[in-house]
Amino acid sequence: MDTARELDNRNRADDDAAKPLIDVEERSMQDTPYPEKTVGKPFVDAPKMKLRHVNVFYADNQAIHDVSLDIGKNEVISLIGPSGCGKSTFLRSLNRMNDTIDICRVKGELHLDDQDLYDPKLDVVELRARVGMVFQKPNPFPKSIYDNVAYGPRLHGLADKKYDLDEIVENSLRSAGLWNEVKDRLHSSGTGLSGGQQQRLCIARTIAVSPEVVLMDEPCSALDPIATAKIEELIDELSESYTIAIVTHSMQQAARVSHRTAYFHLGRLIEVNDTETVFTKPEHELTEAYITGRFG
Amino acid sequence: MDRMHFGQHSSSQFNEALESIRNHLMEMGGLVEKQVVDALEALLHADSALAEKVLTTEDRVDDLEIQIDEECARVLALRQPAASDLRLIIAVSKAVSDLERIGDESAKIAAMALQLAEDGESPRGYVEVRHIGNHVRNMLRDALDAFARFDADKAVEVAAEDSEVDLEYRSAMRALVTFMMEDPRAISRVLNIIWSLRALERIGDHARNIGEQVIFLVKGTDVRHISIDEMEKEVRKKD
Lengths: 296, 239
Known about the structure:
The structure holds two protein chains of two kinds. Chain A is an alpha/beta fold. The N and C termini of chain A lie far apart (44 Å). Chain A has helices at residues 3-13, 87-93, 124-130, 145-155, 162-175, 179-182, 195-207, 225-238, 251-257, 275-280, 285-291, and strands at 39-40, 47-58, 61-72, 76-80, 104-112, 115-116, 131-134, 213-217, 243-247, 260-265, 268-274. Mean pLDDT of chain A is 89; it is low at 13-27. Chain A is built from eleven helices and eleven strands. In chain B, helix 1 runs antiparallel to helix 2, helix 5 (152-182) packs antiparallel against helix 6 (187-219) and helix 5 (152-182) packs antiparallel against helix 7. In chain B, 84% of the residues lie in helices and 0% in strands. The N and C termini of chain B lie close together (9 Å). Chain B is built from seven helices and no strands. Residues 1-6 of chain B have low confidence and may be disordered. Chain B is mainly α. Chains A and B meet through helix 9, helix 10 and helix 11 of A and helix 3 of B.
């Protein structure tokens, strides 16, 4: 079992994040027509991830309808939309986290560089080392801070010697902005940290295996404003080295951290634009209605 | 993009706050429009009572400016408006400055009316004041209508009118300067007319600014400091 999958199982046991995706709510906005294709700028030059005609089904229920999107290298892209719009489902299909759900099927072309994500020969554990994930609730292993971060590198055999591993742990904790707070107690339990620290520990654990893309599923929704501000600052710094896709319910957070914003509505990708454009003059009516809080 | 299409916010308090800002802007617009009309009447008919009224309305206009700005700041702080709501707040808070300045210019005209009532009427210039005054007054009314109805096309018309007012102002200036050279005894009285015309021309500029804010509000494009042709192109672009 690989890190991400184990985490996901732990995470879902007490988290109903996967549930609303199936139970699509009736909304008064349903009368507004969907655009024939996504408006704005869904595609970029030389994308890190190239996703075309993605459809996701839960048994007979289609959760994602023909979504095409590029994620640029070192870009922070935020996925926003009302509950049940499919943004989390879409995010989870980017590192095959949906494989853990039996009734879930993903169709379409999903590529990380030239690698087909759904190639049957692809080692999913390898994939999840390249595309890491941070979850809504901080979920450190009940191990020491050091072992939490060292878990991935050990699993993937990234460090032969003790001092190599020490270096990876220190660098990861430094990148996650946690080193100064925990360097004197690396061997105390990760679960003893505060919520915000735990989430940064989880980010350190994710980046310890040097992923290329980091997926974040509402990483701040369980944190207070100060801890949230630290994570947001961190996202900005991490974007220098990593490509980041973040699902968030906080539109202000999307506005603060992301370069581009993608708006999902009932399983369709309505609009993708520069974040500034989305929050000042969105092109599509549905985006406008959601951004300004006019769903009723 | 028709804001009203989506009707109400999920938050009724937010609705009320936006509604209140719009109502106060319209109230302020109505007051200022009346000030302009009264100031013109006072000048043309040497009516000092009416001129005094223009000057007293000034306080109410100033109060409204402060009140609307406070309301805008409150919505920004408490609601973090986005998209068309954000543009509404920005457009309103800029438009109130222009309205307040129009009020100031009207007060200047009213002061000139008082002066002329005291010193005796000017021998020349009333035709020009009436003509440019009506023109500017209509511009202001159209700009406020455009704001109330989110009408970008009408806002472009206001901007186009402003160019005409500028031309009329320049030709009136030439005529009045010539007159002063011919009859130096009338200089001080004609100067009062010239200051009034100058104030009217400025009111036209402010009406144009309000129109530009309407275009920003409706279309999301900043059309300040560009030609009328470019402005029209921007407005038509997304239809």
